[in-house]
Design brief:
- This protein is α/β, with parallel strands linked by helices.
- Helix content is 46%, strand content 13%.
- The protein is built from eight helices and seven strands, in the order H-E-H-E-H-E-H-E-H-E-H-E-H-H-E.
- Helix 4 (87-100) packs parallel to helix 5 and helix 5 runs parallel beside helix 6 (184-205).
Length: 279
C-alpha cells in the first residue's frame, strides 16, 4: 500500500484530537530518528497521551522529555533505559510496562543501526539482527495481551515495525542467525522477510490486533553511525546533496508514520505493508 499526500496526512493527524484521551504507546527506539519524530507527532496530536520511550542514551532521553512536555504539557512520558540488542533486557522492560498498564494501544518499533560485520551479543545473536528482528518480536509477544485487551475494549491496538517492507527476498532457512553468509544485504533481507512472515502469522492468530510493516524510504537520520566516523560523514554529505530529490525529512517521516499507525484506513485483519516514501 502507498500513502496519500502529505496535506491529507496532516489533516488526518489533526483529527486525532477527537480520539479517546490517554492512549498508551511504547516507542522502541524513540530517542532518535524515525522513532523520535513519530513520538513527537503522537504527543502533538493526541489528548493526554502516555508514552513509554525505550532508548540507550539517557542524556538524549532527558532532552526529548523536556521538549515533548513543551509540545503537550498534559502528556505523561516515561523513559526506559535499555539496550535492545539483549532479549533479557526486553523482558525486563515489558514486565515494567505491563505492571503499570492493562492496555497498550500502540507498539512502535524503529530502533536499528547498520553494520558491515557480524557482532555477536552475549546471548549469541548478531547485534543488528537482534535489534531489527529478535528484540522487536520479543516486544510484540510480551505486549500482545495488553494490545489485544485494548482492541477488545474498542480502542486502537496496533503493532508497527518500521523496517523496509517490500524488500523481502531469500532467507537462509538453515542459517537464521546468519552465523555464515553475513553481509549488509543478507542481514537486511533476512530481517525484513522474517518480519513480514512473522506479522502474517501473528495477524492470523490475533485478528483483533493490527500488524503494520512499513518502508519509510530514505530518511535523514544518523543510522550509518555504526559504520564509523569516516563513512558516517561521507554518507551524511551524500544525503545532504540528494536531500531535495531522494530523501524524506525526519519530521515528515514522523507525520506519515503516525498516520499509518492510527488511521482507520489501515485497520485490517491481516498484516499489511505500507510504503511511506514522499509522493
Amino acid at each position: 500500500m502507498t500513502m496519500p499526500s502529505l496535506r491529507q496526512v496532516k489533516d488526518a493527524n489533526l483529527k486525532l484530537k477527537n480520539v479517546k484521551p490517554g492512549l498508551v504507546t511504547v516507542f522502541a527506539g524513540g530517542t532518535s530518528g524515525i522513532g523520535e519524530s513519530t513520538c513527537r507527532e503522537f504527543i502533538r496530536n493526541t489528548v493526554r497521551p502516555r508514552a513509554y520511550i525505550i532508548g540507550r542514551n539517557k542524556m538524549e532521553a532527558s532532552r526529548i522529555v523536556q521538549q515533548l512536555k513543551e509540545i503537550n504539557s498534559e502528556a505523561e512520558i516515561r523513559i526506559l533505559e535499555c539496550d535492545l540488542t539483549l532479549l533479557h533486557n526486553v523482558d525486563r522492560i515489558c514486565n515494567e510496562i505491563t505492571k503499570n498498564e492493562n492496555f497498550v494501544n500502540l507498539l512502535f518499533m524503529s530502533a536499528g543501526f547498520l553494520s558491515m560485520k557480524r557482532q555477536e551479543t552475549s546471548e549469541g545473536l548478531d547485534s543488528r539482527m537482534a535489534i531489527q528482528y529478535y528484540s522487536r518480536m520479543r516486544l510484540v509477544v510480551n505486549l500482545l495481551p495488553a494490545l489485544s485487551a485494548a482492541s477488545v475494549a474498542g480502542e486502537p491496538g496496533r503493532v508497527h515495525s518500521a523496517l523496509n517492507a517490500g524488500k523481502e527476498g531469500k532467507i537462509f532457512l538453515d542459517n537464521l542467525l546468519l552465523e555464515h553468509h553475513f553481509s549488509l544485504k543478507n542481514c537486511a533481507t533476512q530481517g525484513i522477510t522474517m518480519t513480514t512472515l512473522a506479522f502474517d502469522q501473528l495477524a492470523l492468530i490475533h485478528p483483533d490486533v493490527n500488524f503494520i510493516h512499513t518502508s519509510p524510504g530514505v530518511v535523514r537520520t544518523n543510522i550509518t553511525k555504526g559504520f564509523g566516523p569516516v563513512v558516517s560523514f561521507i554518507s551524511g554529505v551524500f544525503l545532504i546533496l540528494l536531500a531535495p530529490f531522494l530523501t524524506t525529512p525526519v519530521q515528515e517521516s514522523g507525520e506519515r508514520n503516525l498516520y499509518a499507525v492510527l488511521s482507520k484506513c489501515y485497520r485490517h485483519d491481516r498484516a499489511i505493508c505500507i510504503h511511506l516514501d514522499r509522493l
